[in-house]
Amino acid sequence: MAASLVFRLHDRGPELVREVLLERGWEEYDKRHRHDEDWNLYWRASLFHKSDYYNLMPWQRLNHHPKTVGITRKDYLTRNLRRMRTTFGSGVYDFSPVAFILPNDYIRFLAEYNRQRMSPGLPVHWICKPVDLSRGRGIFIFEDIKDLVYDSTVIVQRYISNPLLISGYKFDLRIYVCVKSFNPLTVYIHQEGLVRFATEKYQLSHLGNLYSHLTNTSINKFSPFYKTEKGKVGQGCKWTMSKFRHFLHCQEVNELILWQRINNIVTLTLLAIAPSVPHCPNCVELLGFDILIDVKLKPWLLEVNYSPALTLDCQADIAVKKGLISDLIDLMNYRWVDRFRDRAYKRKLHKCLKVNRSSYVSMPALTNVKCSTQKVKEKKQSQTSKHNFRSEQRQRSSSASGQSGRLHQDFPF
Ligand SMILES: Nc1ncnc2c1ncn2[C@@H]1O[C@H](COP(=O)(O)OP(=O)(O)O)[C@@H](O)[C@H]1O
Ligand SMILES: [Mg+2]
């Protein structure tokens, strides 16, 4: 009899992952009763240690690729996108607002600030964000440089002051992206996602009102207007992406171009680090892309989140995140053979397995165990498994593989 699949959570969370896996019949790892290697999935919100990657067994998966911090920290993202813009041109890499890392780029920022001040037209606004904080912490918006005060490394980014509004409220999109491989780049964009609203009407004259300018739920759930009806937005501060799509449809907006642009943003951003991410076939990465849409329907990349929040604050969260995690587990492609991990190391197969570490399916010793009825079951399962990660983009990274870059997108989500 093969054992159940086993998951291991660092720091006892996230609860949603536990819930989804238990519902799927997995067991939770308990180090008092299990061998060190007796697990199939290790999930942690923070970084894994290098040794976690080196010691991976063929039946084990991790929920992070190594070295993705190159896009998930605001200053690294700024630097990497700047490098890509220099290499491939601002015609392609035109989706992130101009940004400066302070204090290092202070002189450059000053030059740009003065250039904007001198040019005719509407005044330009800037947003200052600490590089290593999240959830809207430490963020402020300013117009005059005398209001720029910081005591840690920050990025100062051009503020997109003409966002698309719904009933006068600002919003941004949380796009969930699963990277199965960086080389070749294999990416799935979840068709569901979240639309996150500010809870006070957008007013450029009140730059200090974070309930009007920031769309983070962690801020807006404390707004006095969180529970009140806010025009078409309704109560609370979140919609599902389906609801947003329906809304666009009713407004007769041609959303196809919008989703294509968002797909491009995701791919081009990931390409900035793809060549530098070590090959790790047993890893997946779930990223949260924050995208703001302006009045001209142009999407802008604000940041990329490592370990996007999996807390369930409202109905929209429940509708989106449970399916998201379930689909992610499907994408990890666990097979019957992964349940034989206990037999594998008990039979002292370690040595043989370590040689084959890069591909867990090519282990004859284990694959032979699979009986034919199970094969039929698996086939049926894979046929019926419904992935909401519908948009797969593959890119052979030119610099990593030596082949010329070819972008292939199946369809927008
Ligand atoms: N350049 C920008 N223009 C307009 N709004 C922005 C900009 N950058 C951030 N915001 C607003 O601030 C919020 C928080 O910024 P973000 O970069 O996502 O940092 P955090 O890690 O704190 O979430 C965004 O969700 C968005 O509402
Ligand atoms: Mg954010």
UniProtKB/TrEMBL annotation:
One of its GO terms (molecular function) is tubulin-glutamic acid ligase activity. Keywords: ATP-binding, Ligase, Nucleotide-binding. GO terms for biological process: microtubule cytoskeleton organization. It comes from the Eukaryota. One of its GO terms (cellular component) is ciliary basal body. Residues 372-413 are annotated as: Disordered. Residues 396-406 have a biased composition (Low complexity). PROSITE patterns: TTL (PS51221). InterPro entries: TTL/TTLL_fam. The keyword Membrane does not apply. PANTHER family: TUBULIN POLYGLUTAMYLASE, TUBULIN POLYGLUTAMYLASE TTLL2-RELATED. This is Uncharacterized protein. It comes from Periophthalmus magnuspinnatus.
